[in-house]
Design a protein that fits this description.
This protein is α+β, with helices and mostly antiparallel strands. 15% of the residues lie in helices and 34% in strands. It is built from 6 helices and 19 strands. The strands form 3 sheets. Strands 5-6-7-8-19-16-15-10-13-12 form a 10-stranded antiparallel sheet, with helices on one face.
């Protein structure tokens, strides 16, 4: 009897011990606090840099699509990799995050990188009452702010923070800001079946503001709207499809330095040169905007990355962002920015929601999809054409 019992115990241990070890290895591999050898500019390099300074939320898997969200840096998506932790981080990340220096001074620097949310208009919150560009700053009450994690699963996470944001009118916006981030591992049907050699990762972001004040936003307080900004590495071409019938001459306006031959409109698509070496920005009016905005990063070897930001634009909606200190009868729905290197040499893909009247307790919500495809340039143009219902092969490329 006893020899048989002992034999059974030995058999059970010999079978279960590898399972326990493997489970422990898997659990450990999903721990964002574990420092591992990492290629430069990878998701793992970012996780290593955040250890001891942040408690990042990681969605996805170590060897498949994976995104990294930093609650302490306004719940921005700071890492995105198609093939897991060791793969290239497809977001622009400030070197101050990677070397840890961003944490040394308070308030923290807003310019961390990745996919973030702000509140617009810029000339209400980011400059003084005289609209002096030399006074530009980011309100510390807006970014970066530590967000609470209110829900989390393998593919989704939601965050919120209460904010009291001062405006240059002397008023204060008391809002609750929420962000819901979902990792997408299957491309939308509109993209069609992915050709051989094309890889995909997607992010669905839904952000919202709730008015906590007795003052009505849109009456006692000026209208505001949700603003989504994505920071990326150059170089390549920003692509903004226009609505059919839009007049390219009145579709957009320039904010900073003149673009000259850095901007071309062809096949009803605005193309802008992106190199992170010349400060420039344009805004596209809502009546002229198409289905979104894209950045095609060209690796100069026949391959690249298509960042397709897909969102809705209400042609008759009230948009509020405009160049500082200049009167305007309308606000821009779609924007892009090319840095000159002084802030890090990134580009930004930006969009706004229409503004809504909000009484106390009212919530305004806006959703968008960031669809990232990596592969041969020709295939990426074909995929983008399907997403935007316009032939990107006919656009001008820098």
């Amino acid at each position: 009897m006893y020899p048989a019992l002992i034999k059974g115990i030995v058999w059970t241990v010999s079978v279960m011990l590898p399972v326990v070890i493997i489970f422990g290895m898997v659990a450990c591999s999903q721990d964002p606090g574990v420092i591992k050898p990492a290629p430069a500019n990878s998701n793992q390099a970012l996780l290593n840099a955040l250890k001891g300074r942040s408690q990042p939320v990681v969605l996805g898997s170590e060897n498949g699509p994976q995104i990294i969200i930093t609650p302490e840096l306004s719940a921005r998506v700071l890492g995105a990799a198609i093939k897991g932790a060791a793969d290239e981080n497809l977001m622009w990340v400030n070197t101050a995050v990677l070397d840890g220096s961003i944490w040394e001074k308070k308030p923290l620097n807003w310019n961390a990188g990745g996919l973030r949310s702000w509140l617009a208009p810029e000339d209400l919150f980011f400059v003084d009452a005289n609209q002096d560009p030399g006074t530009w700053f980011v309100p510390s009450a807006l970014d970066p702010v530590t967000f609470r994690v209110i829900e989390q699963s393998a593919q989704n996470a939601s965050f919120e923070a209460d904010m009291d944001i001062p405006a240059n009118t002397g008023q204060v916006y008391k809002i609750t800001f929420r962000r819901s981030i979902e990792l997408l591992t299957t491309p939308p049907a509109e993209a069609g079946a992915l050709p051989a050699g094309v890889e995909f990762l997607g992010i669905r972001k839904t952000h919202s503001i709730t008015n906590r004040s007795d003052e009505v936003i849109g009456e006692q307080l000026p209208f505001v709207c949700l603003w989504s900004l994505l920071q990326l590495n150059p170089s390549g071409t920003m692509l903004i499809p226009l609505r059919e019938g839009a007049d390219p001459k009145t579709a957009y306006r320039e904010y900073f330095n003149p673009l000259g031959d850095r901007l071309v409109v062809q096949n009803n698509i605005i193309s802008v040169k992106i190199d992170g070496k010349y400060r420039s920005k344009i805004g596209v009016r809502p009546e002229a905007a198409g289905k979104g905005e894209a950045f095609l990063r060209d690796n100069r070897d026949g391959t690249g990355i298509l960042y397709a930001k897909v969102f809705s634009v209400d042609p008759s909606g009230k948009y509020v962002d405009k160049p500082w200190g200049k009167p305007s009868a309308y606000g821009d729905a779609v924007e892009m920015y090319n840095d000159d290197g002084k802030s890090g040499g990134f580009c930004e893909v930006e969009c706004h929601s229409p503004a809504k009247k909000l009484v106390k307790g009212d919530t305004q919500t806006y959703s968008l999809d960031l669809l990232i495809f990596r592969g041969p340039i020709g295939e990426l143009k074909n995929i983008g054409s399907k997403l935007y219902d316009v032939d990107l092969n006919g656009a001008y490329y820098f």
